[in-house]
């Protein structure tokens, strides 16, 4: 299996690269600058400059793009649109490192995590922009996409336990009543999805056991 990880130098991207490499998969890092991931194969190119030919032949493209400053937040939409356009109509699957703010908290799917009174104001612009990108992604019937939302508490330095619970569109709590996942366990879930690929044009979610 040939996998390309876009934005492979980031915290989550680099862990996804390592997880896939450890499983013996054929991994290419897509990075804007010098490659700092574990991948030996590299495409050194800005995400927005990627072409269909750059991503030709990959079974899976994993989008680990992230933007955090107010002026960069709209790039969640524009970057995802660009990647969708590059794999449009192809068998290549596009897996997206998503956000938790857009997960639903009711069975009617009318209320999201980001709508709650306890959701921190500082994260609302990020959640809103990522939620908008997801809604735009849902409209793409020409792409074999999967959007993987982490738990509400997404811990960069959390331990790798090797265990997780796979959920769907709604916020899932573990047996302790928590919504938490480490970056390392999220990487396991993402590579599992890359290998097994059973959620085409679906948003799924993951939480630690």
From TrEMBL:
GO MF term list: oxidoreductase activity, acting on the CH-NH group of donors, NAD or NADP as acceptor
CDD domains on file: BVR-B_like_SDR_a
Q: Could you tell me the superkingdom of the organism this chain comes from?
A: Bacteria
Q: Which Pfam families match?
A: NAD_binding_10 (PF13460)
Q: Which InterPro entries match?
A: NAD(P)-bd_dom, NAD(P)-bd_dom_sf, Polyketide_Oxido-like
Query: Which SUPFAM superfamilies did the record assign?
Result: NAD(P)-binding Rossmann-fold domains
| NAD(P)-binding domain: residues covered | 8-192
Any transmembrane segments, and where?
none
User: What is the name of this protein?
Assistant: NAD(P)-dependent oxidoreductase
